[in-house]
Records
---
Amino acid sequence: MTGENVFQKNYEVLICKELFAGWVEGLRDDFKLIGPVGDGVNAEFREIASLKEANLDYQSTMLPPGKAYLFKPLEEIVLFNAGPGGVAAEEPPIPVQKQVLIGVHACDTHAVFYLDKVFLGAFTDPFYKARRENTFIISLNCKTVTDLCFCHLIGTGPYLKAQSGYDMLLTDMGGEFLVELKSERSKNLFNVKGRPPEAGDWQKKDEMETRLLKSFKKDFKADGLRQVFLSRPGHPVLKETAEERCLSCANCVMVCPTCFCHDVYDETDLSLTRIKRMRRWDACQDYFFAQVHGGNFRSERQARLRQFVFHKLDYEGQFGLKGTVGCGRCIRWCPTGIDLTEIAEEMMK
Amino acid sequence: MNPYLPFKAGITGIRRETGDVRTFRLELKNGLPSGAPGQFNMVGYPGVGEVPISFSLLPSKDSPLFEHTVRAVGRVTDFLAGFGEGDEIFLRGPFGRGWPVNEVKGKHLVLISGGLGLAPVRPVIQMADQLNAKRITLLHGARDPESILFETELKEWRKKGIDVKLTVDEPGEGWRFHAGIITEIIRPLKIEAAETLAFICGPEIMMRFSARELFLKNVPRSNVHVSIERRMRCGTGLCGHCQHGIWFVCKDGPVFSYQELSGYPDALL
């Protein structure tokens, strides 16, 4: 037991924020630095030169960092060259740019785990895989919660409990960061000497978490939804919400950190010799999403709204994970304020 | 390996089945073809797109050639209709889970197909000799006598010992078989429910009512398998279009037991 403690001590340190910022800046030679810029819920993950530009007190972003920087909104997946000898297919170059995502909240880190299940599952997507391997994820425990956050009900936050799948976990302890190293490469890369945390520091961390957990506003029962969903797929709340409020604008899907659906289409250039097969984020809220010859399985708006709500809150059997991480983005960015947790609550009544 | 990278396949023959349905006999330019009954390929052409098409004939130890039977109904399939012998198309696959042919042994296999739905069932018939089924019955329904697929092969299938029963919605003159919907030829079928395994492929509404006829005969839901169709863009469970409940029809299906599909919305089943 004692040995274990000594072993772990090396990978958990408290260092002052300036020292940490200096270390991050040193990564610039090898990595593109990507961090949250802006305030409150309107921050944005973008390339930064140093931590001075970043705001680690941000609450949320419109686009989730994992999805935006691992699964690009638009990307070439196959290239074709048409010449006198016929058409030849070739693989587009695999991305090699190394990047650091700094300050990824617990919910968004869990969303990356979900994307891993999708893109590194039965079939491996070579582009996602390359980006994932080239991305160093520095997660950050939340300091505040928003009115729309419900990660505490899903088990994905506000403090990150996962022990692997990302590189580093930060907790803001006031003047210092508690840095927990979670991957082999972070242990190799992080060379800053700091103070080993003492019992009092861990206690402070626990207390901050407990205080934060008390500040959540949202509360709904996420368990037992499955039976309700399957027994009442035609519940009036779906119909009413779809017909009176839903615009099928697909904002909910675009900002969702776990929504992975994409369209595949071909782009031919004007010389008719270069053809790019592209993928582009797509949304189940789009009318044509489930259309086949002779019919459309979700031609009704109600069916499309239901697909989103059920896929996020149920259908856990798909990857063994809930489709939602409780980040609240789909509620925040819905122009008419549709709230999937309210729909679920209404159905549970 | 990039799962999006397609293979070239050469067209060695085209058979016009009915007005807008063609069967392409294909040969892969590189690599050995493979596949199981009920699996599909993403078939298409650069600049046009790809569509999921089930094998209508599999490569065998006698011939490396395989077939896809395609109805021209959209951008990609209309484009394919313009192809001739010697042309090349592109495909990826084989994808998905096919018919549970390993469960057929000792059972009465009931194949039920509607229209073009006979194409994905044909590879099962192709390997009928190896299935060790107690009995095989094929019930096929088509719009009219002219649109019955693989008509020239029916005699051969009967010679193999398969009990082939046909029905058409609009019988012409000289039609010797049943006229009416498919359920009317399922109903009189004598079966032992627990010993019966059914493979159904056709329009979803037809599969629904065909399955019901079998349930009325007490065939368990887990013994009734259907091959379903959904929009697909990747074939590999990544693009998300084919999601039906918890399933990705492309990688978990396209063949499912009725048991597996029960309870999910957005289907006619």
---
Amino acid sequence: MTSPLEQKKIKIAGPSIVTANRTWDGAVVYRTAGHGWSTDLTEAAVVRTADAARDLLSEAAADDVNAVGPYIAPVAVDQTGTIAPGNLRERIRLDGVTIPLLPVAVAA
Amino acid sequence: MYAYDDIDRTLLSERVSEFRDQVKRRLSGELTEDEFKMLRLQNGVYLQLHAYMFRVAIPYGTLSSKQLRRLAHVARTYDRGYGHFTTRQNIQFNWIKLAELPDALADLAEVGIHSMQTSGNNTRNVTSDQWAGVAPGEVEDPRIWSEILRQYTTLHPEFSFLPRKFKFAITASKHDRAAIKIHDVGLRLHRNDKGETGFEVMVGGGLGRTPFLAKTIRHFVHGHDLLSYVEAILRVYNRYGRRDNIYKARIKILVHELGADKFAQEVEEEWRQMDKRVLTLTDADIENVRSRFSYPVYENLPHMPDELKAAAHDTRFEAWRKNSVAPHKVPGYAIVTLSLKPVGMPPGDATAEQMDAIADLADRYSFGEIRVGHEQNLALPHVAKRDLPALWRALDKIGVATPNVNLVSDIIACPGLDYCSLANARSIPIAQELTRRFANHETASLIGRLHINISGCINACGHHHVGHIGILGVEKNGQEVYQITIGGRADENAELGNLIGPAVPYGEVADVVEDIVEAYLALREGPDELFIDAVKRLGVEPFRERVYATR
């Protein structure tokens, strides 16, 4: 039987990566070229075709023990090869919330 | 406070053990995410942008100081030192680790707190008026009935896999502080001509992408019949509610498509033919639950104690007292709202240190009890008026005495794109900017009561449809833009707001809100005409003109 992933048509509009959340703590992780996961976006495997994206996503989805909910996300790659998130959602996932975390320091 | 018995304690303990085993099997790979997802959701565990999110129920918004300290402990030990109070009397922890969740659950279970049914397609946390039991003029304490419903719906096998989530809210006051008309079932406690306690039953309210206000399907259901009538509603929903389309699965869609009259007929027919014996509440059943709520032994205290007279010269204290202190059913006492909306900060967040300090103040000044309201503020429900000046100084020190309750900066906001995997746009930074724009207390007081609600997506956790000013974040061509509605309200005169025009960019939202407020100040008949009343009188048009004339 064809898996749902294989049935799904995958389109990408530019350089892309596969990202997910790490199972034990939920941290944001990126699929690497070495068939593992990294919390460092610069270590992410970048794909540029739909077929390559499908393969990377299939491989990531097969590793259900270590990461949850993999999906393809856009990135921007500059001339030096530096990878940056391709949209606001991914920027927030990488850099954290855009607001201060702790409301008030409590007086002693 | 409600006292748990051995059955409750055993249930929670067994639930923790069960979830501990499920987590262990998930981490070992024995359970796949597909298999585990339903199990974690049934324990209030979501996966958000940065981490797992853990949602803990605060049934009918009542907490003991011991329970609040334990929530602080969870924030400090397993999370990043703070929690977020939601619009449904829950608290969320945003950075919890799956591997540590069973320990957090076990710590909470020791004080009778849990996360069962804070997610999933089941009956959710039963919510109520945060002033329950202390509000003047209340028919009776709605928490008795909330607790009966909580016990009945918790792990009910027939209602654990409903077409979609299902939410109850109960109020017993004329002024609805529980937003019952935007719930799947809203219950208004009242008495019939014989003086018997019963409920007006409203069904099919809800927000999200298809907002509806609940419709009354029966004006009086006797208290003895509450469970059988509710079961009849749930059976009709379970039978006819759509399971083929998540967007049409809520009971509001069923009520809308059938029509309230036809839906009511279906419920009546189900109710008529069902065997009610086991579900009929006897006076003894009700009394048994009632007897497990403890109430303070109030003193005979003066309405205007010397301490209050002496503090009246302090303008900051007076501003806070007028704004955040409400009448209590017992003379000499007051209900104090603690604003979790300090200027420039996320609405509804509290640090572990604040929670600990509030728990200490509750012990000293409020018989050890704290309330949580759907507006994302806290309350101390039993404060002697003589203690108000001392309490205010202590609250001010920990940053929860901003005198903005029910004013323009008392903003309800969902976590938005900063945390939520469903969100399309940010909510919290919009709220922060608005609190800065309206930070001046004199200006906010001049504007008067005005509720702003912000949601970061169409799922409407920030209840934007029922904000006097509602702000909905959406994504368009990769940019955050915001639709603005006005005229919504969530009280006994609930209304859905109306869109004023095209969406505006992130950077213009605060300017637009300022324009709307300025238009109101220019157009109102006088200071007594509230914003919401002016919108009702004038309609959307004058506000639309003001906002879009130069855009």
